[in-house]
Hints:
heterodimer
Amino acid sequence: MSALDLPPRPRGRWKPLVAIGVILVITAITLSPQVGISFSFDAIVRNWQNGASKIFALVQPDWSFFPRTIPPLLETLAMAVIATFVASLVSLPLSLWAARLTNPNRWTRGIVRTLLNIVRSIPDLLYASVLVAMVGVGALPGIVALLLFNIGIIVKMVSENIEANDAGPLEAGRAAGGTQFQINRVIATADALPAFVNQTLYVLELNVRASTVLGLVGAGGLGLLIDAVRTFYRYDQLSLIILEILVVVIVIDNASDAIRRRLV
Amino acid sequence: MSVPSLFTLPPRPSRRGRVAVGIIVTLIVVAAFWSININWARLGSLPAEILRYLWLMFSAPDWRKLPEALLQTWRSVEMAWVGTVFGLIIALPLSLLSARGFAPAPVRWGLRVLFGVIRAVPEIIIAIVILSVTGLTPLTGALSLTVTSIGTLGKWGYESIEGVDPGPIEAVRAAGGSGIEVIRWGVWPSVTPEFISFWLYRFEINVRASAVLGLIGVGGIGDMLTSYTQYRLWPVVGVLLIVVVVVTMSIDAVSGAIRRRITEGATVRELDR
Lengths: 264, 273
């Protein structure tokens, strides 16, 4: 056997090719005009003139519009803060309830987890649009929508963190004769606190981003204004709002990063 | 000289920082509650009201609308799929260009700022901008999901490329490989599992987002849901919500299983003895 013989090629080299083939076929189906979304360049070319002027308006923000955007912007931030605050209050006990180490009862744990899985699979804006029809236009349905969305996220992440934590201290608590409630309150909560703070800050970031558009379905905040300027095709005003969202989101992200580094 | 007692406790760690943060957070929360214009009296009746509507929606769901609901869901999933595929095709080279060591610094920082801007703007606003060119069609939805996917896939991509073990890259360079060969043999094999996992995860996000995009009228399940909420046909709304939950959860389950299979490898089978 010569020294330059190459090792045999690994088997299964056809697998990626098959995967790519399947992806291409599905993409072709989704792009076909009969059953798909009919990707056509004609429409884009036809509307290009119309669209180009709008896009052009986007790069020239209407600064005189700025004062009118301030109250909705503040309302948006208030919605985000309130939803985060209430969600954090509700989520900590629910997270303890949903984790195996802090709730040994399989049935109650399963119920909480299933409910939260269902809650998590509906996007916030869909909640908002249904809630607006239920309780009327305003900030309240927006806050409730954010709340539902937040509880799902915080409880999932924090309860997973509790399960990943060292079970030793909890066993020590049990050995010392603590009831499950005492163990959860004194030991598990302290262990889960960094993860909890981390997730709460993360949810605040998500909320600031999400609350800016909740108004599109009538749930208060900056979105109401977005809806108005979009109906009148005032893309110069829209671009100012987008700029404000950008600034606010980036400021909040950085602030929450700074807090996170200090606390966690 | 007194011997320190065995029972002296160590000094308490300073709590000043935490107290300060606590006060600031409390002030912000109070200001938020104080500034917002809500009729708090309605809050008391809210749970009962929501329960009443839940009863209206789910006590007798109107299953006759199921076929149309499934068709619209298919539209939404199509938007998500096309958005993901286009997004990954565009994001792949961009994430390479924005990783350290593959392109000049101005290109790198420009792309990173672009990814950051895309991620900061909600997808529905991107859709509003795109719709001025393409109109209220599912194509608008697919294109705006493409743009948002580029934002996240680009960022995850360059982070993952920068985390690659430099050994294979050096080996390819030492063997005289060109830039393309470095990427193909030094970078690609190490990042593929992560990339596929990112793509699938982004698809899951896009499925949710595509339902939302329907709200501005680009079609799909979100569009149908807003219409029926506005008609106040609650039994149909109930069916639509059930469809959204079932479809989202099943796509998450399948995609999650594939992701685990790719990142963690096959489950170890019982060995033959």
